Predict the 3D structure of the following.
Amino acid sequence: MTHLSFSTYKPVRWLLAFIGGLAGEGSVIDWVANHRKHHAHSDQEGDPHSPHDGPWWSHIFWLSWWHGSEAHAAHIKRWVPDLVKDPVLRWIGAMFLPSHFLVAGILAAAGYAYGGWWMAASFVVWGVFVRLVFVLHSTWFVNSASHMWGYRNYETTDDSRNNWWVALITYGEGWHNNHHAQQRSAAHGHRWWEIDVTYMTIRLMQFCGLAWDVVQPEPKRTTPATDR
Ligand SMILES: [Zn+2]
Ligand SMILES: [Zn+2]
């Protein structure tokens, strides 16, 4: 949605946006706005989450800042005018918090049916709290670790790095230097061993007729730059 790396049917797009919200990182509209701003100012003044402002800032503390509702409205208008036009996406964004209570309720009901209250509590703890801690930290590592540690295939103007362990826990997002170099490419892994489960999923969707116009990496730009 941020980079228009592939096209799909609107209901699939909405479903993916809803599932994305379950990662616990705010409304889809806010997420895309922050991410586009990150690309426009990567590791420069204006980047919402650069390790230049401190590793912990880029990992977690940038999220604790609220700039006021006026600044937020201007931020949304500036970065995601396309997304706010879609009333369904706005609704999905507004459902961000309730959706987590919905998931917790479903898990509690399933756990209770399976093994009483103790199992209900267990399902909620593992399915909501433990899962969210893991998902949040793994994706936050893209902003922190993948801008500090790893190797570079491309000379970009930011400090983005390809980091194998971040790629492993984020299904390919950790090949972040590749992503900054070729932002529209659906594939984040550009060398044969840079495994990218997200791209495999998009290819599977394409195979099933659920995705098209899948943007490929530019072959002439895949020659490695000097590693550093
Ligand atoms: Zn980045
Ligand atoms: Zn991006």
Residues 10-221 form one domain. The chain is about 55% helix and 0% strand. Residues 96-143 form the longest helix (48 residues). The pocket of zinc ion (ligand 1) is lined by residues 38, 42, 147, 160, 176, 180 (CB under 6 Å).
